[in-house]
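User: Predict structure, ligand manganese (II) ion.
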Amino acid sequence: MPFELPALPYADNALEPTIDAKTMDIHRTKHHQAYVTNANKALEGTPLASASVEEVCRRFKELPADKHGPVRNNAGGHFNHTLFWNTMAPASGGAGQRGGGAPTGDLAAAINASFGSFDAPGGFKEKWAAAAVARFGSGWVWLCVHKGGKLEICHTANQDNPLMKDAIGDAAGCGGTPILGLDVWEHAYYLNYQNRRPDYVTAWWNVVNWAKVGEGFAKGK
Ligand code: MN
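Assistant: Predicted complex:
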């Protein structure tokens, strides 16, 4: 079945002031829609036409060579943005749908074990911010889980993601299962933050839905 643009689990303006409604609207209905449309076009008639987007990210090298670029970019873009929307929530949201705060339970324990702490100097949030600045140009920052529950931060260019490890090697970052991703393309923040990527990264913690990230961790470990 062709991919479809997912609905947002909140209103376009629900993440304000962190992410403004106009950015949200253009980002999903123009950028993400283009990835969906172009992924479907590239996959039509191929053996992966009915595969999940995760499968397509893992296996696109099985397709003819002329499909690799378009599928890598556009199926990657579809997976990446779907995870991005689904792991954010308004700071004013109800239980399980509230952005901000800190991780709890098993996920909190795993973050402490893997990074030393969540928000102390040198801990997870600092390492994440460093990865976001280290990613030159367009790309993504990822929190990934490996089998056994170890967590790792990595970053990738363009619309690559860690699911693509077998297909693109080191360009796929750490190769774990992504459970949180931050879009650092300028289209994700330029209207509100212009060139100030670090400000966007700092503000973004206010809309991370840690309950959702915790679900991804439970599934991925
Ligand atoms: Mn984007």
